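Tokens as discussed.
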């Protein structure tokens, strides 16, 4: 969603109001066309802004619902941080040093079969 769309609403409305208060009023056909164009531009932009706002993810949530979701996410974050801290505090050591591990390589297991 672009903030530019919302920022453009007020100047477009001001332009419509300015055209209605113009010294000629809306008596000439040019003034009527300019007012019609400005009004349609404002209405189109307002419609786009409404559509964007209506389709926001989670836009149907009330303020208290949003606060509840935020609290739940913060609690989950805190639990994960605690688990990571516990994990980081553990010392991890191998039961048998890797250098002492005997590995047997089966050459037939890695050889393609050609029966």
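Sequence:
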């Amino acid at each position: 969603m672009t903030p530019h769309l919302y920022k453009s609403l007020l100047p477009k409305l001001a332009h419509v109001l300015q055209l209605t208060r113009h010294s000629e009023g809306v008596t000439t056909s040019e003034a009527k066309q300019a007012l019609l164009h400005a009004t349609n531009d404002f209405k189109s932009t307002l419609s786009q802004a409404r559509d964007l706002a209506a389709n926001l993810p989670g836009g149907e949530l009330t303020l208290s619902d949003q606060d509840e979701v935020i609290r739940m996410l913060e609690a989950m974050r805190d639990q994960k941080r605690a688990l990571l801290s516990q994990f980081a505090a553990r010392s991890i050591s191998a039961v048998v040093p890797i250098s002492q591990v005997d590995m047997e390589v089966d050459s037939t297991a890695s050889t393609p079969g050609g029966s």
